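User: Please fill in residues for this 304-position structure.
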């Protein structure tokens, strides 16, 4: 006789106080960070960036250029660390791996599972993940099936994340919610809990293809979910806001929020990332200003 399996039950999560979340998130933007603390924060932000190119016109040459930028974001005299990763489509993974080599400090991340829609059959999604890992991806950025989530099929969302985690093998799994399509903070909180229980190593706001993408209140809701999960299980889950973060001032505000919500343990590329395409050069311009005492023109920095 076949053993009965316990049906999936969506986790019980607290209702999010919208007013409080938005007011608290706003408070992090008002902190004043100056001189050496600002310089250290900006360099830390660079070390947490996933430089990203996700366009139909991506080529091996463009990916190699992005990898070069990630390895050496600025002139050596500025002492800027490498970026955390480059994030590319699955077909570009092997080109990124060939350029970076096996022991690079810069990881290779691949978007997968039918990015950005997630509207693909599960076998196709899993095949894409396995191929990306076989080609050299260290990290997989998957998208959840928002149709399943929004129609209340939370078991499908959970099971697809768990299956993707298994398909990742040694690669880390980042789970993208596309928070702009989840509509409410309560949905974001519930998606966070489902993803963490299903085996996510990171939870991530957005694909960058939908507006709004990352916002500070949404990120705060996800950070608080991570905090509560850690208190309950002792397991540290990473966080990646992506899309819409374009200035060094915004990046520093996010770091303040992480520090005051989760603590110093999360101020590392192992547990916090920025999905960045245009952010890096603004941060580099601010670093140059702090080191040299004057701004450099954007033309002095290569495009990411």
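Assistant: Residues filled in for all 304 positions:
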């Amino acid at each position: 006789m076949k053993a009965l399996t316990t049906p999936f039950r969506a986790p019980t999560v607290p209702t999010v106080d919208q007013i409080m979340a938005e007011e608290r998130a706003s408070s992090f933007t008002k902190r004043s960070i100056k001189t050496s603390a600002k310089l250290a924060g900006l360099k830390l932000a660079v070390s947490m960036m996933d430089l990203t190119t996700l366009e139909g016109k991506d080529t091996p040459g463009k990916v190699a250029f992005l990898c070069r930028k990630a390895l050496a974001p600025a002139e050596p005299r500025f002492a800027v660390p490498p970026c955390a990763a480059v994030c590319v489509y699955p077909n570009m993974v092997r080109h990124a791996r060939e350029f970076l080599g096996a022991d690079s400090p810069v990881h290779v991340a691949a978007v997968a599972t039918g990015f950005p829609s997630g509207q693909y059959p599960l076998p196709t999604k899993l095949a894409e993940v396995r191929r990306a890992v076989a080609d050299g991806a260290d990290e997989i950025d998957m998208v959840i099936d928002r149709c399943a989530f929004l129609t209340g099929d939370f078991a499908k969302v959970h099971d697809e994340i768990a299956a993707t985690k298994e398909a990742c093998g040694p690669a880390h799994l980042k789970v993208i919610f596309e928070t702009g399509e989840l509509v409410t903070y309560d949905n974001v909180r519930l998606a966070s809990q489902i993803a963490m229980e299903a085996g996510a190593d990171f939870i991530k706001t957005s694909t960058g293809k939908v507006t709004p993408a990352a916002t500070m209140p949404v990120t705060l809701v996800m950070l608080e979910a991570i905090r509560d999960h850690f208190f309950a299980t002792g397991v540290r889950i990473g966080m990646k806001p992506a899309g819409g973060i374009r200035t060094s001032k915004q990046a520093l505000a996010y770091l303040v929020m992480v520090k005051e919500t989760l603590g110093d343990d999360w101020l590392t590329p192992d547990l916090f990332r920025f999905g960045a395409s245009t952010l890096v050069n603004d941060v580099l311009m601010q670093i140059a200003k702090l080191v040299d005492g004057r701004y450099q023109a954007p033309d002095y920095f290569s495009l990411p």
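For context: Residues 18-294 form a domain with the TIM Barrel fold (CATH 3.20.20.70).
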